[in-house]
Amino acid sequence: MFSKPKTRWWLYILLTVLLSMVMLPFVWMLLGSVKPNSELMASPPSWLPQNPSLANFQLLFEKASFGTYFVNSVVVAVVVVAANLMFSAMLGYALARLDFPGKRIVFGAVMGSLMIPGLVLFIPQFILAANLHLIGNLSALMLPFLVQPFGVFLMRQFFIGLPKDLAEAARIDGAGELGVFFRIYLPLAVPAFATLGILTFLGSWNNFLWPLVVSVNESTYTLPVGLALVANGQHQADYGLLLAGATVVVAPILVVFLFLQRFFIEGIATSGIK
User: Is residue 19 part of a domain?
Assistant: First the structure.
């Protein structure tokens, strides 16, 4: 008879304490977003709001144009995520399963691109966007990020881990290369798609410096840029408005991760990313 493993009660206590420390700022942000400034500035501060109200959120979308910023962020994030999933999957599959001249050179270029800091490409990308007359347009927020080398590497590692017998059986049945890719491998790539989708969404949703530079008017601002305006503009002393804006920025990230966390963990485990 095998003895049951001892319950590590101290580990659960430690994890609970660490989780509480991580969640504490988010709880304070959420509770503060429904407080008036008088309660936020009270001394000593109180955790629970005495007179909770959604006035900060109402003011945020009426006077701070957060509705426009939110729509811009959603449009940019959806396009960037969709493009990265498709292009990264196609190139990753080609590098993993196809033989073509220059394959090693292409893979070397992908790996070399991973080593280039993003700030090094900032000025060339801005000059290119300016020459294409994209400054002040949502297209400038999307085009530089439609495909990323990390996504190509992630998808390649995932496709390498899938058995070759699936493709060979499909080819025997008369499927072409596109049929093998779309009908056999893509349905199996859901965990990798979830992982890449979450990481790409986080990068696009939280991107601040590039939208700040290429957006020359408020009609193309995204949520991080809009939140910075709320923090440093005419609403500088309105901490309730600032906390409400931070809640709006963080909420979609939490929702996406909660829905896809199972696939995210599985994708990391099966893609060779340690």
Answer: no
142 in any annotated domain: yes
Distances (CA, A) of 37 to 61, 157, 228, 262: 18, 51, 19, 39
Give me the helix-helix angle, 66-97 and 239-270, nearest 10°: 10
Helical pair 66-97 and 223-232, crossing angle rounded to 10 deg = 140
Cβ atoms of 233 and 171 within 8 Å: the answer is no
14 within domain boundaries: no
Q: Is 78 strand, coil or helix?
A: helix
Task: Supply the pLDDT for residue 266.
Answer: 60
Three-class SS of 109-154: HHHHHHCCCHHHHHHHHHHHHHHCCCCCCHHHHHHHHCCCHHHHHH
Yes or no: say if 44 and 226 are a contact pair by the CB < 8 Å rule. no
pLDDT digits (tens, 9 = 90+) for 164-200: 887 778 777 777 778 888 888 888 888 888 888 888 9
Tokens of 194: 């979830």
Residue 252 sits in a domain whose CATH number is: 1.10.3720.10
pTM of structure: 0.81
Residue 148: domain span: 63-273
Which residues in the chain come in under a pLDDT of 70? 1-7, 64, 231-237, 263-274
pLDDT digits (tens, 9 = 90+) for 136-174: 888 899 998 998 999 999 999 888 888 888 777 877 777
CA distance linking residue 229 with residue 218, whole number of Å:
10
Please tell me the total count of domains within the chain.
1
Distance, CA of 89 to CA of 272 (rounded, Å): 16
d(CA 271, CA 157): 5
Give the angle subtended at the CA of 59 by the CAs of 56 and 64, to the nearest 5°. 120
CA dihedral 146, 150, 151, 152 (to 10 degrees): 100
